[in-house]
Amino acid sequence: MKKYFFLCLLVAAISTLGHPVFSQSKTSKTDTASLGMAGDNLDLYAVLDLFLKSKTIEGFEKSLNEQKTGINNLDLDLDKKVDFIKVVTKKDGDSYTFILQDAVSKTETQDVAVILVNRDKNKKVSVQIVGDEDLYGKDYVIEPKTSPTPAVTANPAYGGPDPAKDVPASTTTVVVQSAPVVQYVYSPAYVPYYPPYYYGYYPPYFAMATVLAVGIYRHNNWYHHGGYYGGHYGGGNTVIINNRNQINHYNNTRNTSNRVQHNNASGNYGNGNRGSASTRPSASTRPAGSTRPSASTRPSTSDFSNRANSSGGRNRSSGGSYGGSSSFGGSRGGGGGMRGGGGGRRR
């Protein structure tokens, strides 16, 4: 009887010691640590996936902001309503920069992220999305995975009741060249898209949805795509910017908002964690790999048409313009009010 009792204790102890090893080897839809920043409400893995599946830039902007897709849950002005994100295009030769912007107020615009699309002299296309550091922390970069990842072997020492199984090599990759939006922008049929929307004036399809709690949003929408990898450089990944000249030029004209910076400093977007690399998945969960930066010409400033009430110029803390034309025009009510849909103005 004593032997049986001690045997039971021994089995229980072994199981207890083995459990943490197993739990670390598992991955689930909700195990990705949050940034504790506003970017937790806009999954850039999902945004990049949507971009590559879109047929046009205007179609991408529409799908990004439609409530039914469930991707946009961003609320930078903290009025408890989802913000509209517009897509501004800059082009230089075969390099495209698609800037996702949020009009925080009638005087301030915050860049959310930038999608970099490049085609080299050999007609090879690369695509990356870079999260704005005010929303995602420094060096938050995601790109499609263009080669398979190796298999993962389960821990052979674990002897618990529910052993982890071997994970086969991932063959899920993205052929960037064949993505509909890539084929479109490099085709003769491409027509530059200039969004007419500004603070308080939005398209009819944009419904002013109530912001979901970040935990619910992450549970429903956080993407663990086998076809994408990235995150912070310091988080163990080796994803780097493919076109450093392009991103440097963009950074020189990046829009930031004083309100967003104040909310960040006050911890209004999360738990005060400023998106350090330690919160991101390690290289073991998102395979690394990337090409080295390629040389490129600096993108020229796009010549956007003047909008209503154009103010001209650009200010790093204002809703200024790219290329000398106002990104947003018209007027709108107080920053914290309700926004009216149906192409109307926020009141």
Could you explain how this protein is built, in words?
The chain is an alpha+beta fold and 347 residues long. The protein has one domain (30-326). The chain has helices spanning 2-25, 44-53, 57-65, 133-136, 180-185, 214-221, 244-251, 258-265; strands spanning 85-92, 95-103, 109-119, 125-131, 140-144, 228-232, 321-322, 325-326. Strand 1 and strand 2 (95-103) form a beta hairpin. Helix 2 packs across helix 3. It is globular. Residues 14-31 and 272-342 have low confidence and may be disordered.
Give the SSE map.
Layout: H1 2-25, H2 44-53, H3 57-65, E1 85-92, E2 95-103, E3 109-119, E4 125-131, H4 133-136, E5 140-144, H5 180-185, H6 214-221, E6 228-232, H7 244-251, H8 258-265, E7 321-322, E8 325-326
Antiparallel strand pairs: 1-2, 2-3, 3-4, 4-5, 5-6, 7-8
Throw out a few tags for this protein.
about 350 residues, 6-stranded antiparallel beta sheet, 8 helices
What is the compact description of this entry?
This protein has 347 residues and is an alpha+beta fold. The chain has helices at 2-25, 44-53, 57-65, 133-136, 180-185, 214-221, 244-251, 258-265; strands spanning 85-92, 95-103, 109-119, 125-131, 140-144, 228-232, 321-322, 325-326. The protein has one domain (30-326).
